[in-house]
Sequence to fold (403 residues):
Amino acid sequence: MKRIEKVIQGYHYVGFMLVIGVIMVVVFFGGDDSGIRFNIGKETSMVEDYWFKDCDFFNGRWVYDNRSRPLYKEKECSFMMDNYSCEKLGRKDFKYQSWRWQPHGCELPRFNGTALLEKLRDKRVVFVGDSLGQNHWVSFLCLIDSWILEPSHKVVEWHGPLIKFRASEYNVSIDFYWEPFLVESNCDDPINHKILDRVVKIEGIERHAKQWINADMLIFDSYRWWLDVDITLVWGSFENPNKTIVESRRVVPYEMALRTWSNWLETHLDRKKTRIFFTSPSPGHREGGDWGKTTGENCYNVTEPIVEERPWGKGSDFDLMRATESMVEDLEKKGFNIKLLNITHLSQYRKDGHLSIYKRHLVSPTKLELANPAPYADCVHWCLPGVPDVWSEILYAYIRYKI
Ligand SMILES: *[C@@H]1O[C@H](CO)[C@@H](O)[C@H](O)[C@H]1NC(C)=O
Ligand SMILES: *[C@@H]1O[C@H](CO)[C@@H](O)[C@H](O)[C@H]1NC(C)=O
Ligand SMILES: *[C@@H]1O[C@H](CO)[C@@H](O)[C@H](O)[C@H]1NC(C)=O
Ligand SMILES: *[C@@H]1O[C@H](CO)[C@@H](O)[C@H](O)[C@H]1NC(C)=O
Ligand SMILES: *[C@@H]1O[C@H](CO)[C@@H](O)[C@H](O)[C@H]1NC(C)=O
Ligand SMILES: *[C@@H]1O[C@H](CO)[C@@H](O)[C@H](O)[C@H]1NC(C)=O
Ligand SMILES: *[C@@H]1O[C@H](CO)[C@@H](O)[C@H](O)[C@H]1NC(C)=O
Fold:
C-alpha cells in the first residue's frame, strides 16, 4: 500500500485512473465515514488505509451528532480525573458531549484503539506540558480505555511530575510529564504549583528533558502559564542566580524558552526516531464580549457553541501563537519530524465546552460566590468527554496514517 500511496500522491484530484503493472487503482473520496476506497482489479474493497494528503483537518465545523458522540461515557472511563468530570460535579446539560468535528472536504478516520495500540507497539509516547496537556492526555486514554478489556493490562502510575500509563499487551507507554513552562520553574511541582510569583530558569531544561528525550513520540504544549505578566527570569541556579530580570512582555520570555527547548532538541533528540507534535494555544472563553455578550459574562451557563463560521475572537494571544508557529517551522526546516496541532481555531467555537463551575474546588466556594458564580467559573479547561477528544482524534489520524 505504501508504494501505491506514493504514486497517488503525485496527483491532485480524485477519481484519477492509474495503471501500476496490471493493477488498476481508482481512488475517490467516499461518503460519511468511508475515508478512501480503492478498486483493485474488479474487486471493490474498503481498505483500512486511509489517506488525507489534501485534507486540512483543522478547517471545518462542529456538527451536533448524538448518535456517534460522545465516544465514551464519563463514568466509564477508568482514567477520568475529578478535574475534568463535569457530569460528576453537577453539570446537568449534556449537549457539550455530542458535537463532532467535521473538516471541510474530508472525514476524520473512525477511532480504533486496537489499531492505534498495534501501531504504537513497543513505543513510548509522552505528553509534555501543563494542565491542558493533561486534559488532552486524559482524553486520549479515555478513547483507548474501552479497547483494552482486561483492567490489569492498563495501568497508571504516578512518579512525581511523570504519570505513566502502560498498555502491557502492546508494550506501549503513553505518559504525561508536568512541565508548564517547558523550561524549569518554581511551578514544577505537579500538585503544589499555585505560586503567584513565578520564577522561570530560562535556560534550564535538562532536568525535565532527560525524562522524555528518549521517547518515540512527544506531544508538547506550553502557553497558558506565559499569559501572566511579570514573570521573573533567572540565570544560573534558583538559589544563587547570577542574573535576574522581570519581564512583563509575554512574548519575550516565551521565545527565550522556546529557544532553550529547540536548542536542546537539536543537540539531544534523535530526529530519525522521534515524532514531535506541538499543540497550538487552547483558547479560553473568559470574555463574553468575544461572542456578543455583555462585559462580565463568560463561559458560565453557556450551553451552545458558536455555530456560524467566522474568524476567531480574542481568546488567545496572537504573539505567542505566532512564536510557536515559527519555532515549529524552523525545526521542520532543520529536518525534524514535527507538526503543529492547530487546535486553536476549532476549539474557539466551543464556548460551551469548559468546566465552568463544575470543577474540583481546592477551597469550597463561599455563599457570596455561589450567589454570583460567573467570576469563579473555569473557562480554560475542558469537560470530558468534550473538545480535547477531537484533538485526540486528529492526533490519532496522524499516528495511524502519517507515520
Ligand atoms: C490553523 O487553522 C486555521 C483554521 O483552518 C487556519 O485559519 C490557520 O491558518 C491555521 N494555522 C496554521 C499555522 O496552520
Ligand atoms: C438526540 O438529539 C435529538 C434532538 O436534539 C433528541 O430528540 C434525541 O432524544 C437525542 N437522542 C439521544 C440518544 O440523546
Ligand atoms: C480495529 O482495528 C483492528 C486492527 O487493525 C481490526 O482488526 C478491527 O477489525 C478494527 N475494529 C473496528 C471496529 O474497526
Ligand atoms: C518494550 O518497549 C521498549 C521501548 O519503549 C523497548 O525498549 C523494550 O525492548 C520493549 N520490550 C519488549 C519485551 O519488547
Ligand atoms: C488535576 O488533578 C491533579 C491531581 O489531583 C492536579 O495535579 C492537577 O493540577 C489538576 N488539574 C487541574 C486543572 O485542576
Ligand atoms: C550564569 O551561570 C550560568 C551557568 O551557571 C552560565 O551559563 C551563564 O552564562 C551565566 N550568566 C551570566 C550572565 O553570567
Ligand atoms: C442560564 O441561562 C438561561 C438561558 O440561557 C437563563 O434562563 C438562566 O436564568 C441562566 N441561569 C443563571 C443562573 O444565570
Notes: Residues 56-401 form one domain.
